[in-house]
Amino acid sequence: MPLYRQLEGWLRDAITTGALPVDSRLPSSRALAADLGVSRVTVGTAYAELESAGLVVAAVGSGTRVAPVLPTTAVGAAPGDRRGGTWPAWQGSAETSEPAEAGPRGPDVVAFTGVGDPAAYPVAEFGRTIRQVLAREGAAALSYGPDPAGDPSLRRTVTQLLASQGIGVPPESVLITSGSQQALALVCQVLVRPGDTVLVEEPTYDLALRLLRAAGAQLVGVPVDGHGLRVDVLAELLERHRLLDRPRPRLLYVVPNFQNPTGASLSGSRRHALLELARVHGVPVFEDDFAGDLRYSGRATPAIKSLDDGGHVLYAGTFSKLLMPGLRIGYLVVDGPVRQRLVEAKQVTDLGTSLLLQRALDRFVTVGRYQTNLRRTGRLYRERRDALRSALAEHLPDAGFALPAGGLFAWVALPAGVRSDTLLRAARDRGVDVAPGSRFFLRPEDGAGHIRLNFAVQPQERIAAGVVRLAAAVDSLRVTPSGTSSRQR
Amino acid sequence: MPLYRQLEGWLRDAITTGALPVDSRLPSSRALAADLGVSRVTVGTAYAELESAGLVVAAVGSGTRVAPVLPTTAVGAAPGDRRGGTWPAWQGSAETSEPAEAGPRGPDVVAFTGVGDPAAYPVAEFGRTIRQVLAREGAAALSYGPDPAGDPSLRRTVTQLLASQGIGVPPESVLITSGSQQALALVCQVLVRPGDTVLVEEPTYDLALRLLRAAGAQLVGVPVDGHGLRVDVLAELLERHRLLDRPRPRLLYVVPNFQNPTGASLSGSRRHALLELARVHGVPVFEDDFAGDLRYSGRATPAIKSLDDGGHVLYAGTFSKLLMPGLRIGYLVVDGPVRQRLVEAKQVTDLGTSLLLQRALDRFVTVGRYQTNLRRTGRLYRERRDALRSALAEHLPDAGFALPAGGLFAWVALPAGVRSDTLLRAARDRGVDVAPGSRFFLRPEDGAGHIRLNFAVQPQERIAAGVVRLAAAVDSLRVTPSGTSSRQR
């Protein structure tokens, strides 16, 4: 079969199966010829054949595209397309938890959601670093790493960063993960079985709730106040568990610094008390320190892990918040026999995190550069936090708001009678996006009076503009003394 | 506090906690000064202070190093260091499955283990592509992606590659994962609960066995012959399950092309029969096509997924084997309600695969370039397969060996009386590494008579040299007619 026929046949298949969708552009004949190592004439002939079959349309200036209406004889139904068909019984009733909710996007939307500000990512420097790694290490950087626990050099770098934060651990305790999210997922996989009780702060990080629920855990909430998790309530709860002879909780998930969503930090005395409870009751503590080094005021409190001399605490950190989330590199610090089981879990889950990215990150993150970036980012985000405070004071004076000492999030108590879910819709109508409090509670209803605002993602002038829009949305929902909303007056 | 004091304090902490281990080299004062944005004098003064405290040693030519013996007052015990201490009860007895077994390394070792040949990775081209992505997309490439199921453009590219292999699916069916390993891990997470029965080929890919075991599955093996999985045995097994009213198996894990470890491929008629059994008995099929496009002889058989019009098959592929494993990018093709649950599992597990690598791969993998690379790699690996065949015929004529039509692995039946585990040690003593058959069976004993050789990882001359060493190891273990090994004569 001549080459052009083979090419034509392949393209015909791609078009009729929908792999090349209607209206998609085919490569230029020059590019495709170069790619395939064939002559331009071959490609041109194949394209001409497809055109005469009505499968593609060529137009001067816009290249060759898949025809908007395909000849019916050539089109089969793709398996994913069938609607209303029956699926095998094991596929169940698609009982998903909450769908991944994406807020509105676009340049006009002021989004108080998401993570850090892309404008703060060190893109060019990191690009140079990747180039250096590929130039010096070549194919080695594109292989599996020698150790499923992560690149040894990056693990050493992590211990140096941790030491600068008062956590002294050897590199053997560090397990590199795909973000701190995977650190929690692995711990879940190793320690939590369906039906196990897991303790969480309430409110807490929504994707931790979803992960733990997906693992079949029975979640029990412990309330958070301005000084973090209520350790007194935790003590009562554990004691009750013990007296009733119920199986011990399998995990305590806690975010001690600039908690997500409340921004509160666990006080030093509570950290000690929490660790003591974990010891006495034999409950592992998962310490999620997703943004502990992003501090804007006050002094750091030692990590719970730094108080732990007995392998009670699993500590997770990440480079996502400070550097760039697209890397997806975080780490878990863990001591004791469970460490080996977690390394095994990491290996069988994905054979290790991309070595190229680990090597590039290791080369990029000298302690000095990390500290420099931290200072720069900290300055930027602190200004934004303060801008949010001022804007809220001016435009939403009756909203409750405690200034967080660091991190990314502010937790706002809405004026009486305004519900966060209703507000979400009203706010989106006005081009502003927030996270409704309901996402962060075991019973969504408990979060009806709060919203979470990420102040770090955008410059100050947009923050101010966003709060003005938000205030307008709140005003439209305010309950008047007679009990009807102002909108209905 | 003066700057040099702050720096000194920080370094002191790093040294005393062990984060900067004994004998490790500190950065040059010039490099550290540049990193921190301070003067070289500041760094020099801090280093001098540390030196007079006995914490570092400076030597001309080799820079400044952490002192080999630290002053005892400055050294605390790192938590990971305690040996013989007691760990909390929940840490259990460290009941790990097999430890991650790393064979011998070094330039003198001929290793018939691992995956593809790093020399075949398109390192320079890929480096250029990453640079282009960072230059054109900037910070966007370092953010979370817009969709936890993966970059939409890469998903489209995957459908085009699949279409060229006869699998017609829309991009919405594709979920990008961290290698095909994670595709299986996610399916495990969503479909398999502890105690569930899972059917596997026997022998099969060892890390699939370890993953499924870690998930608490009860594994049941179905034998493989020269035409792949014995579908007749599968039919009996499923029928028995049904008659005994036992819960249906939760999953059937199968590698239809160039099976790992046997190299056998599932015949076309068996593919149809297998799918029909899956339909009738309501068992989901996980089709692991880790190297299906690496074919060296014969004609391709359609993927089981391509026969499936009802969402019975979950199909996994990967870029690891053909391009480079360090990327850690693979994909799962899945239709029906379970798809949304798998996307949710991906999201809560790691918030998605690195967008930077997804974008770079998408830009890199035009269909033409993929096909070119496939042809080049295929030629290379076929020569190596043939070199292995010749070497075995010459040096180990009484070993059984069926020529695989593609993939990476040859499955070798050892001469009578030679056990693979003993051979592994004898071979390593002679500088050659193999995978013993015991790894691939539910009862390791069943694999005592086989070894798996990866013929793709090294050039032909090393293959020949390795087989010579292997033959020597085998000869040292041969059982003589009188029943003692030749070594003992």
Features:
homodimer; alpha/beta; Arc Repressor Mutant, subunit A; Aspartate Aminotransferase, domain 1; Aspartate Aminotransferase, domain 2; 8-stranded mixed sheet; 4-stranded antiparallel sheet; 15 helices; globular; HTH_trans_reg/aminotransferase (chains A, B)
Describe this structure in words.
Chains A, B: It comes from Pseudonocardia hierapolitana. Chains A, B: Residues 1-69 form the HTH gntR-type domain. Chains A, B: It holds the Pfam family Aminotran_1_2. Chains A, B: Its cofactor is pyridoxal 5'-phosphate. The structure is a homodimer of 489-residue chains. By secondary structure, the first copy, chain A, is of the alpha/beta class. Chain A folds into 3 domains: 3-74, Arc Repressor Mutant, subunit A, CATH 1.10.10; 110-120 and 372-488, Aspartate Aminotransferase, domain 1 (Alpha-Beta Complex), CATH 3.90.1150; 123-369, Aspartate Aminotransferase, domain 2. The first copy, chain A, is built from 15 helices and 16 strands. Chain A has helices at 3-16, 29-36, 40-52, 123-137, 152-163, 179-191, 206-214, 231-243, 268-281, 304-307, 338-350, 355-364, 367-395, 420-429, 460-477; strands at residues 56-59, 63-66, 110-111, 174-177, 197-202, 218-225, 228-229, 251-254, 285-288, 313-318, 330-333, 400-401, 409-413, 432-433, 435-436, 450-454. Chain A has an 8-stranded mixed sheet, with helices on both faces. In chain A, α1 packs across α3, α2 crosses α3 and α5 crosses α12. The longest helix of chain A is centred in the C-terminal third of the chain and has 29 residues, at 367-395. Residues 72-84 of chain A have low confidence and may be disordered. Chains A and B meet through α1, α2, α4, α5 and α6 of A and α1, α2, α4, α5 and α6 of B.
